[in-house]
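Hey, I'm writing a tutorial for new members on how sequence and structure tokens pair up, and I'd like a real worked example in the thread rather than a made-up one. If someone can provide the structure for the chain below, I'll link this post from the tutorial.
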Amino acid sequence: MNFYNHLLEHNIRPTKQQRAAIDSIDGAILLLAVPGSGKTTVLVARLGFMIYEKHIEPERILTLTYTVSATKDMSERFKSLFGDEYAERLEFRTINGICARIINYYGRMIGKSAFSLVTDDRMNSELLGHIYQQVEKEYATESDLKTVRSLITYIKNMMLGPDEIKHLDEAEEIKISEIYRLYQEEMRNRGLMDYDDQMVYALMILQRSPETLYYFQTKYPYISVDEAQDTSKIQHEIIKLLASGSGNLFMVGDEDQSIYGFRAAYPEALLDFEKEHKGARVLLMEENFRSGRHIVDKAQHFIGMNVLRHEKTMFTKNPATGVIRNIELKSRNAAYSYLLKVATDCTCETAVLYRDNESILPLIDLLERNGVPYRVKNMDLTFFTHRTITDISHIIHFAKNPSDEELFMQIYYKMKTYLSKALAQQACMESRKHQIPIIDAALRYCKLPRGTENSLQDIRLNLKNLLSDKADQAIGRITRQMGYNDYLDRSKISDSKIMILKSLSYREESPLSLLDRLNELRQILRERDNDPDCPFILSTIHSSKGLEYETVYLLDSIDGIFPQEVPDIAWKSSSIRKSASGDDLLELKIFEEERRLFYVGLTRAKKDLFIFEYKNEDTTFLNELFDRGHTRRPDTSGHSAGAIDHPGFFMRSGAVTYTSTLRYNASTPVAYMERSSAKPVKDFSEDEYRAFIDSLAEGVRVVHKKMGNGTIISLDNRTILIRFDTGKESSLQLHFLYSHDLLKLL
């Protein structure tokens, strides 16, 4: 076989950079491959070159991939290119696959059986749920268990020591160190191990058993690793040990596409490759064959702002067909409506990409209500059992069942009841005894401080009115008037899920119907079958990695969502950032992963790329992408103003959390009433008036022609409450303000 002629017969014409990678066999080699550069084709072609040109036996080559599906895909790719003769003799494995072999080999050598691998997620969840309840003194939701599992995976993959694990307690607001200790103890007592334990035990064996290490080093003198940027610290240690015998290690990856930090991906190993491997070489594949030049040039400019990376310049010979542009809308809800129209008219492959799973739920709700087809990739349903969503649900159900003791004990300290646990328990006892609602019992039979009594009366009134509210008004009542936001602030819990809940609530008439709709959506997403031919695709950026689409829409380019936070170090010069250390370095790493995630989203598009942004919202990434400079809107109110979903949301500048601010109370006195009989100074359409309403939100700075500058405190469909800089608070009629041109945004 003439190898390169064989590639030409299969329409593969390697570039100079690709050919250099294919021909490089001996020694430690890191191939940095930009998006769309054909890395899988090169990796498979290199395997063929090793066998047919270098006459290396297939059994002596180990190819490690990130997932089981990737091992199957690569094996099929090899078969399609070179036939079946050697395909079955090549070893394509995940890291866990080779770790299982290491453990089993060592077990046979010493005559002992290894711990049993837990493959049943339900069994693992039951064990962790029991331990969580024991440590945290409350039942774990599905979301809680997901968090715990992720942290345990992170601990093992990052090889954290006891002090580092203990530090996670404070960072994660959960006693993960104790949960982890009890979990590991119970697993050992039962003779069990999980998938992360497989790697921990395999590394220990390789470190402590020279015979085992020698066996695998001689068995696999040639090791190839795909998606090296997604490999964790412990996985890199295992690979380094296996390759240390022959020194023949070929790693393919790109730290610019390392986006799995939450799974303990360790891109530092790529940056330190030449230090860790004697005589190592770094090769580049910089040509993108996927996207148009307009997308490639912008994406390269954008990712070049990261400093923790190898220098490389992505380029393409593709023409600049298609478009890349921002779509400016008044609110996030407007983006959902926009995408509903896109989906309705969709005829070519179009993907909507987003940072977090729950971001797309309001759009899914719209699509389902309108019967518009869509595909959704790897939808995570933990939103529906997240602690904040569960709390809101419990409060609504308690409003309906005010004698439910179990509900009350879960929520009393999350509202402005100001009850101690002892008083809450006494109230429950008096409620049972006298067969009356719990709060009535507390007010009538418990000895309460005057302030607590007043607060309970307010809570009772709010609970009474709650069920007659519209759904969005009920969420606002719970979060603001009943004090749930205060609880989140005290507990340092993000309220970003409530933002999504609020968006879902606008199409529901009551809080109870909202809860019913949540159950419906959860059931729909759990049971739905995707039509593989549907061109309209919904996916997180993480799930889209490695894929490509004709047209891409990117959601949520809002500071506080994407990126989650913009640390001060991000605005400093690159020379300062390169020398960052300590907390600055940690903040920089986190922020640069956010930038990498956005970059991966950009480079999924082949032809057209659209990115939403919203009025009055800071958008660092779009500023960088379109080279607008690193300017941020002044924040005179102490908050970053803007209507995220609807008048009723504001974003804490530089924070992860969002807070519902819509306050509705029909009995709120109007402290300052404009005379509505006065003649309007302008004519206007309903659309113009609605645009004015949509530009307002709590925290927004405004100027009143008569009363001066102030900050919006709350608003509903009719009135707005403003705290003026003079210290005076006034409730004003929105229609009068607009018709008489009295109020402007600062």
